[in-house]
Amino acid sequence: MKTQTYFNTGEGESIQPLDIGHRDYACLVSADTAFWALVKKDRLASALAGSPLLTEYRKKAKSFSDELDTLRFKLKPSAVYFNPTDRCNLNCSYCYIPAGLRKSGTHMSAPRLLKALGVLKNYFKADLSQGQRPQVIFHGAEPLLNKQAVFAAIDRYKKDFRFGIQTNGTLLDGDTLEFLTSRGISIGLSLDGHINSVADRLRRGWNGKGVSRKVVEVIGRLKGYHNYSVICTVTRENMSSQADIVEFFHHLEVPVCMLNPVRCTLPGGYRQKPPDEEAAKHYLDALDRAYELYQKSGRKLIVANFANVLVSILAPTARRLMCDISPCGAGRCFFAISSKGDMFPCSEFIGIKKFKGGNIFRDDIRAALKTSPFKSVSERRIEAIKPCLRCAIRHFCGAPCPAEAWAINGSLASRGAFCGFYEEQVRYAFRLIADNKEDAYLWDGWDKDTLTTFDFTRK
């Protein structure tokens, strides 16, 4: 009988020791509250035996638990991922949107897009604090295939929403860039390699031709514009190039990048999934390279998906992304709208009819958020997932992604695809903290609005 190997980091509900691979320090973690403390290895036994550290922790444990509970269950949606079209001019092999939709799907007309944003404006106005502007990210597929409608929407509602656009970059000509940058629109690009032969293996047009030259050209034109980022999707094809990709992005003066493991929500993505151990090794090498480049140049390249994990340890409520927590942000911090106006917990679920919760042109948004398709995602708890319920780092990971878990295992109450990968980056994050290097990996001012709620230092 074949035995399944799990990458657990501890069992039980109490404070657990965690080996972080550091020469001097180990970590004590409370899996229930996400509390942690770095302890000299030669003092670990005495710390576990009932030190002043644990006494002080127990006094504040309830407040830590309440803070985590608020983050997990009491936030309101403040963002929407909006697909203004089903179509895309690329046929990337790992895309989570079905090929039929990308090839011959529909555009949302400009009048309907404006109407949908009007509905969203009224919803957020009633639900968010005064002065808080919600975010709308035009996503895809390729939103610039429906540029006329998207640009009309941006100009009509620029005072009501913070807009962003996630694009493959191939349609970003001079006029388009001028429109977006002059209005301060957040721009997300995709590039999967540091050289064309790597980048073009997976991101190609329907004619089979790669598009990396165009994307690199666009990145060059965005130099000095700080409201953009570049996503590199990590697959079997490029996992060993991650350090070189980081160096290339740094050379291009990219301010923020993401090295995202490929989502496995469709067979094409799953076939490109790299093994956790290998992907983690090269990923950590890339983070090391980013630090070396910062030391030499004084200029940071923020690897945002790692920065989010690091912040989830240092200051849980300061995290910017909501993928690495349980429940994730889908259906509770954000939701997605398809080109037909259908509402889903997240863009990853678009194309899976089971997770459609309503239509923005016919149904009340609040009611949609309470439907079974939404609640099955927004109430997904890591405490109900084996083996995650025993894991010491479960609140720094969150067993992402629910769409991935559903696609791979047929159940939301299961892990996603990169358990071991998350474990290794959490250990790496603790090593950085032990060596006082964490600020080099985080955006400037990340702790501006944070408060210290527990400070126990013992020499």
SSE series: EEEHHEHHEHEHEHHEHEHHEHEEEHHHH
Proportion of residues in helical segments: 25-40%
- In terms of DSSP E residues, the strand content is 5-15%
Cα shape: globular
Largest sheet: 10 strands, mixed
Distance between the termini: 50 Å
The number of helical elements comes to: 16
Tell me the radius of gyration: 22 Å
Structural class: alpha/beta
The counted number of beta strands is 13
Question: Order of strands across the widest beta sheet?
Answer: 10-9-8-7-6-5-4-11-12-13
Low-confidence segments, ≥5 residues, pLDDT <50? 1-13
Q: What's the overall average pLDDT, rounded?
A: 91
Describe what is shown at a glance.
The chain is an alpha/beta fold and 459 residues long. The protein contains 16 helices and 13 strands. It is globular and about 65 Å long.
Keywords:
alpha/beta; 10-stranded mixed sheet; 3-stranded antiparallel sheet; 16 helices; 13% strand; disordered N terminus
Provide a descriptive summary of the structure in words.
Helices cover 37% and strands 13% of the residues. By secondary structure, the chain is an alpha/beta fold. The strands form two sheets. A ten-stranded mixed β-sheet has the order 10-9-8-7-6-5-4-11-12-13. It has a three-stranded antiparallel β-sheet with strand order 1-2-3, with helices on both faces. Helix 9 runs parallel beside helix 11 (276-297) and helix 11 runs parallel beside helix 16. The chain is globular, with a radius of gyration of 22 Å. 46% of the residues are buried. The model is unreliable at 1-13 (pLDDT under 50).
